[in-house]
Amino acid sequence: MSPNLFAYTDYRRFLKDWFEARAGRPSIRGFAKKIACSPAQLSSVIAGTRDLAGPLAEATAAALGLDEAGCAYFLDLVQFEQGETRTQRREALERVMTARRFHQAHRLEDAQYLVFSQWYYPALVELARCVGTGTNPAALGALLTPSVPAEQVAEALTVLRTHGFLVEDAHGRLVPGEPNWSTTHDANGIIGAALVGLHRWILERAQGALEDVPKDERYFGTLSLSIPSAALPELRRFVAQFEAEAMGRFTERAEPDRVFQLSVQLFPLSRSTRP
Questions:
Q1: Which distant-in-sequence residues (6+ apart) come within 8 Å of 126 by Cβ?
Q2: Are residues 210 and 221 located together in one domain of the fold?
Q3: How far apart, in Å, are the Cα atoms of 142 and each of 56, 121, 124, 147?
């Protein structure tokens, strides 16, 4: 049996599993002939070293025997990965996530995408650590800055509870489902796309915080430093370790009462001067 297309967010992995599930019938060679490309080209697409060009993507979807909804979903997966603009990729991803919900193929990955797509989802998880927060959506929404409508908070709480990001303790109070949680630094696919949106919002919010947050409640620091290019992986690990230590050191303290956003930005200000 062919794998369930709607369970995939990576068209290359689907193609690989599709061929494996069919035990070589058709073979890569036979399928390639059917879509008018070389076996080497098709193998490179599956391996991730070549992209699936527009007409070839349509021919592939048809050769897979997909129905209309399946063809549209497959082409959206291709567009999500290969779209020429960020807008094209984002719109394709939105269609992918809508189709997955319709076909009931959503998994924890989808929940993580939703959580990291909206800034207030992780904020609500952290707010659950704070004393006196309760579970009233209107009250929780008013605590957030900027405030969030009660209906959006209620929806967020449902998602967070359904997927274990928030759980009830012995006293019926909502608490985080895991000791600590954070975004990964090398996420890709749909989680990576969500993180791009989240970090973009954080950067925009940081600009406003410079104006509307009292100086003693914020800290902005920046360094311009020259390093050997080969030291960049070590510097990234150092920054990641700092974030992990900050999370562990400060979230373990008793009776927190407020949620803060700690962000560290690292990006090049020049090209390498080496010949």
A1: 176, 251, 259
A2: yes
A3: 51, 14, 12, 5
Choose one of 105, 128, 148: the last residue of a domain.
Answer: 105
Residue 135: name the closest of 146, 117, 115, 150 by CA. Answer: 150
Q: Who contacts 68 (Cβ-Cβ below 8 Å, separation ≥6)?
A: none
Closest CA to 114 of 77, 88, 152, 142: 152
Total number of domains in the chain:
2
Bridge partners of residue 166, in order along the sequence: 176
Q: What is the separation of C-alpha 49 from the centre of its chain, rounded to a whole number of angstroms?
A: 23
Are 135 and 174 within 8 A, CB to CB? yes
pLDDT for the residue 228: 92
> Using only C-alpha atoms, what is the Rg of the chain?
23
Q: Which domain holds residue 190?
A: 107-275
Please report the pLDDT score of residue 191 as a whole number. Answer: 72
pTM for this structure?
A: 0.62
Of 194 and 216, more confident? 216
